[in-house]
């Protein structure tokens, strides 16, 4: 059997009659292809050594630089029902302009004369408070008068007591004097009686001395009674002093009790009056909330609550307003790996949605339609989307941003970093390495200054 596996195809078949084989075996075509690939290879090698500007890109949107310039929703602090609209969507309003009138839906505030009635209650409580104050003052005067009267009465009683004490002393001295007289009368009677027994004195002399003795005895008894009477007067004076103290203390205590009762009523009335005044102020403030006004000059974006008679609860968003005088900014988000490369004061390039731009990330000098920005703040905590937020304002040294951009429009940001060869950037991208880290020029200058100062 003939083995055909070792035989070549071109030896058995004439391949020249096939067009595809003629195209394959054409040596001129091989030479052209090799030349083209060689040129591409040389160009590729040259391009690998061209400079490339590293960059950090982020996607965000247009916002405002100040928080009070951002779109806000006006909320109602109270529950209510829509009664009348005074603005329409797209209208420009000034600060304080009335946007919406609402009415109460809480039964506590239905009374249209609520403020007047509350004010009348406050007036009545003021009169009651004045009455309590007058009563307290009158009781204070009464207490002072009782204390003064007690003082005078005690002085009078003390004088009476002192007089009684002096009278007791005087009667005691008189008693001692009549006792001495009695002793003398007894001696004289005894001597006279002895002389009469001896016949030297007459009986009449004895009787006269005896009478004198009896008079002295009577004087002693009388003086003792007088002394006891004086002592009783002293005791009565002491009793009178105790009675005066007890009587006036009772009167003063009673006046103090009435005074404290009046003070208690006064304080209760003051507390109730303060409560009424607080409610009156709350009612006044609440009545002002029935007219929702513009907090600042702005543009009515959208009416969230619609129609007449629609009810809503407290804290419900009523209308959305956009301030007029604002300073635009861009809020962008960058990956955590690129965060250390961004610093406040750094310049960035921005592409706004809707504005044609031709951007070459590696050659910014060839980019068109981009606008300059400056980093204002870099957030210290990560956002919900897993990236860090960076706030960018307009660069005053470059072309102004378009005036017709609106808050919420999309924006793409590019931060330009170091210049490196293209081959290095390709190697970095393939290996997932971050761009070259560096510090702002100001930081380097400050560090150099500190080092020079240390030297």
Automatic annotation (TrEMBL):
The keyword Coiled coil applies. The chain crosses the membrane at residues 30-52. The keyword Membrane applies. Keywords: Coiled coil, Membrane, Transmembrane, Transmembrane helix. Residues 129-167 form a coiled coil. It comes from the Bacteria. InterPro entries: MFP (IPR050739), Single_hybrid_motif (IPR011053). This is Efflux or type I secretion ABC-type transporter, membrane fusion component, HlyD family protein. It comes from Psychroflexus gondwanensis ACAM 44.
